Amino acid sequence: MRCDLCYQSEPTTYVELHHNVGMLLLRREYTTQGELCRGCLGRAFWHHTLRNLTLGWWGAISFFMTWYFLASNLVSYVQARGELAKAAPRRAAPKPVASGEEAQRLLEPFEHNVRMRLRDGETPDSVAQDLSRYHGVELVSAQRFVEQLREAA
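The structure assignment produced for this chain is given below.
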């Protein structure tokens, strides 16, 4: 499923979190509800908890609502984390590794960046490892590409 906040395709669970803002005689209530991933769940929980702790106490009714929301949010958070722990994490499909001429073609757009990194004193091996890791090419092909650019300079 998709997270309702960040739209990432990760395991999600439905949750409702609340916070209260007390204003002596008045109060306001805010809610986050929807299918949330693990990261958004944590951010939303702490968002509501911190607002409850800092802004929730200022009023007679608000004082009691804050305690209720703190307890309710904690229970919802623990249950949601338990459900997310049961969900199997999705594994990314293995990235194909390019080699030879295909690797050269994939790396050509990064020629300027490689030249700048070499000029700044980075070692050819570290530049080649980054190219290999981030652009799906064999390490040997990335090393060959970096060496060609280093020799041409």
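Interim note for the steering committee: The two ends are 50 Å apart (CA to CA). The chain has a mean pLDDT of 89.
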